[in-house]
Amino acid sequence: MGHMWTMAQFDLRQRLRDKSVIIFAVIVPLALMTVLNFVIPSSEDDVELEPITIAATVPEGDETAAGLVSALGETEGLDITVDEVDAETARSRAEDGTATVALIVPDGFGDAVASGDQADVAVVEGDGSGLESDIVVSIVTSIVQRMDAGSVAARAGLQVGVAPEQIGSVVQSVVTAEPAVSLTEGTVSVEQLDASGSLVAGQAGLFLLFTTGFGVLALVTEREQGTLARLRSMPMPTWQISGAKVLVSAILGFVATAILLTVGGLLFGVDFGNPALIACLIAAVVLAATSLGMLIIRIARTSEQASIAQTISAMVFGIAGGAFFPMAVSGIAGRILDLNPITAFIRGLGITAGGGSLGDIAVPVATMLGFALVVGAISRLIPDRGTAL
Fold it and tell me: Does the domain made of 48-176 have the CATH classification 3.40.190.10?
C-alpha cells in the first residue's frame, strides 16, 4: 500500500502542476455556471416590470363595470394606471403603444351579469406588448371569471324561483366572497432544486466526469510512452499501479466537486444542506465516475480514443442527468435515466437541500454505488489491453 500511496502522491503533484487540470476542473465550470445563470434568470426577482397603463371604457352609471376597472387599479405589487376613455380612444391608444392594454366594457354589462345574460369584455393588447400585458389579461380573466360565477348564480336563482329583487345581492355575495379553495405557493419539493441549484449541481456532475478522467486515463498515456511497462516490472502487485491512478481520480474528483458546489452555492445563493451528507453524495458519484473511466481505458487502444470516449460519455451522462436543463421523461425511458449517476447525484442534493437525512438519500447513494459496482464488474470482463487493471 505504501508504493500505491507514493505513486498517487507523485501523480497528484504532477496534475496540480498541470494548470489545465485546475482550469478545466474548476475555473471553466464556474465560468460556465455564471454565463448560464445570466442567460437563464434564476428567480422571478430578476424580472423588472414596467409601469402599466390601461385605457378603459366604462359605461356611465354601471357600478359593476366600475368595480371591475377599480379592482385592476388596486392590484397590489403592480404600478397600474387606469385612464377612463371612450372605446375608440382606448383602441387607438393600445395600437400606438401609449397604453399597455385597452379594456372595453360593453354597455349593459352590470345588468347582464345580474340577469345571467352574456356580456363580452374586450381586451386589446398594445403595440409591442409583453409580459405586462399578459399580466393584465390574466388579472382581467380572473375577475371576469368571478363575475361569470355570479352570473351563473343569477340564472340558477331565477330558475329556482328567487325573487328578482334579491338576485343582485346573490350576485354580489358570489363575486365578493372569499374563495373556498385557495392555492398556496410553497417551497420547492424536497427532491428538487430551484433553477440555480440545478445549474450548479448539474455542472458539478458534468465536469466531475471529465475531472476523474485526468487520473485514470493517464494509464493509457503511460502505456503508450512505455512507463507502464517499467512500473509493472517493479517488485509490487500490479493492481497497486491502477489503484494509484484510481485514487488520484477520486481525490481530484472529490475536491473539485466540493469546490464547485461550495463556490457555486455562494455565487448563486444556493444552500445544499448538511456538509456531511453532501460529502457522502460526492464520494458516491466520484466512485461512479471513476468506474466509467476504468471501463473506457479497457476499451480504448490509444490515448486519443480514450479522450474522445471520455468526452462523449461525459456529455451523454451529463446532459441526460440534467446538467443544462431537467429531463422530464416518464415510462421505461424515465426509469433508465434514473439509473444515471448524475441524475441520482442531483436528486440527492435536492433532498439534502430540503433538509433530508442520511436515510432519505439512501436511494440516490445506492443508485450511484450500484452503477459503480456494475460498470466496474463489466470492465473486469473486458480483455486487458495492458493497462494493469
Answer: yes
